[in-house]
Each structure stands twice: as structure tokens, then as C-alpha cells.
Please model this.
Amino acid sequence: MRNFSRRESLALGAGLALTPGLALAADKPLIRRPIPHSGEMLPAVGLGTANGFDENARSDLESVIRALLNQGGSVIDTAPSYGNAEQVIGDIVAAQNARAKTFLATKLEGLEVSGNAAEAQGCLSRLKTTRLDLLQLHNVRDPGQSLKGLNDLKARGLIRYTGITTTYERAYGAAEAIVKREKPDFLEVDYAIDNRMVENRLLPAAQDAGTAVLVALPFGRGNLFREVQKKPLPDFAAEIDCSSWAQFFLKFILGHPAVTAAIPGTSNPAHMIDDLAAARGALPDARLRARMAQYVTGS
Ligand SMILES: NC(=O)c1ccc[n+]([C@@H]2O[C@H](COP(=O)([O-])OP(=O)(O)OC[C@H]3O[C@@H](n4cnc5c(N)ncnc54)[C@H](OP(=O)(O)O)[C@@H]3O)[C@@H](O)[C@H]2O)c1
Model:
């Protein structure tokens, strides 16, 4: 278990952001975005669990989920292929008696037309719930992929929303075709200040289909922090209530109108609080987003 300083403990307990992410907008409400197909509001920053969500660091993970929920967040994205993550999340959410406060999103690895009901039952059981908020087909690659199985699971009340995911550029065409034809409730894609290919076709297709967008890899698996290691946060970051690079990167993403929520991955509670602070205060308009990208990538 990581030992927290007194200051960190106080901040975690009080739900305040920690340095370097002391939120400039801590008193502002959390930004929520509507899921277009239902109008339900979703907090604009959630939690990704692809890395680090294993048994070894259970106490830190409990603190991460507590921090997410204490700050008003709810979205937790996971998958059967993320080691023990589903099981760990299921245990922690049950122990914190927090199911009603969480929006649990997971994935089917099998892409059968039937929707693989048995695999979905496995997710329900590991996540210790009777209904998933969102079930997504993981890494679609066939433009003809049917969502019949997912739609059946939704009709049976086992899931609330359907979705597909991809983080592979070579599969963007397939994802676009599925979004246009099947109109899933959600699309999960990679998008970051230095990785903007989805702006061309996928994000507009999602907007047209009324498909909510979850943003995976908002920090490029952490590479973005290394890219800016020698750069100070620019003065204009304060214009959008940014006090850390994580907030800067996330606010860039949230400034795109197609985006419903970003799901940064972390197993560090202080980082969770920092990330959530991006969902408070001002967001950049198109002009400022261009300036932000120019500052980080030079183009
Ligand atoms: N095809 C798919 O469906 C697909 C593919 C990839 C990812 N995903 C989803 O997207 C989520 C996000 O992607 P990811 O976790 O791979 O990468 P990411 O969110 O781009 O980056 C995670 C990295 O950023 C660091 N980090 C997080 N918050 C930070 C902060 N405030 N300050 C400094 N460092 C910070 C984390 O380290 P610490 O742990 O130390 O905070 C970790 O090293 C995944 O967890 C998963 O749920 C989906």
C-alpha cells in the first residue's frame, strides 16, 4: 500500500485535489454530458482499469474508486481481458456498497452474432451485479459486425446500453460502418491531443448516430506526460481552470462536442482526483484547442 502524506490524506478525505492538480475550479460543479439515446447525464471524466487493477495494490484501488465516487464521478471502464480487474472492481464496489453510484462499463471479447450471453453472465458475476450499465464489443474489426446479441441482452434487461470499441486505426473504417448502420448507444475510441485521427470521420459519425463517445487512452498510455516533461504548463492554461498537465490533456478532449466522457487509466488516488478536476470549470473552444495542440505537438 502506498503511504499518503498527512496533506494527501486530508485532501482525499475532504475530496480536494492534490498538487500538481490543485483544481482552480474546485468549487465548480462537475461537468456532465447527456447520453444521446436516453438523455441520462454522465460525469465527463471516469476511470479506465486496463492497467494496475490487480490484487496486489487492492488498498490503493479502493482509494481510487472512493476518490472517483467522492468527487461525483461514476464511470468505470473495464474488460474481461484486463487481468483480475472485473473481479477486483466488483469486490470493491460491493464492499463500498456503491453499486448505485457507479456506471459499470465492460466488454465482450467474443464477437459472435449471438452476443455471447454466457460471456456476459461471466461479467455480471465478476462485477457482482445483476445488470451492466454498458456492454461493448471489444475491438471490432468487421464492418458487417451485427449488434443483435447485444440488443437482445439489452431487451432482456441484462445491460442498459450497447457499445463497440476500437483503438486501432486500421479498424476505424469498420467501427464507422457499424456506428452508421447499428447506431450503438456508445462508441469507445482512442483520442488525445497528439492522436486526433478520429476527428476526421469517427467522431462526426458518432454525432450523427446519436452515439455517446467514451475516450480511451487520453494520455497515450502515459506517453503524453513524457512528451511535455521539459515544458511548463502555458499561462493560457489558467483561462480554462487548468493546474496540471493531466487536466490540460483531458480538457482538450472534453472540448470536442462529440465527446461524452474520458476514461483515463490510473491506480493512483491522487491522480484520480487530479483527472476529475478536469471535469470542472471552463472548457476550451475551437480556437483555444488549436492553441493547446500547437503548444504540445507543434502543429
Ligand atoms: N480497445 C479498447 O477498448 C481500449 C483500449 C485501450 C484502453 N481502453 C480503456 O481506456 C482506458 C485508458 O487507457 P490507459 O489506461 O491504457 O492509458 P491512459 O489513460 O492514456 O494513460 C494511463 C497512464 O497515465 C497515468 N496517469 C493517469 N492520471 C495521471 C495524472 N493525473 N498525472 C500523471 N499521470 C497520470 C497513469 O499512471 P498512474 O496509474 O500512476 O496514475 C498511466 O500510466 C483504459 O484503462 C481502458 O479502460 C480501451
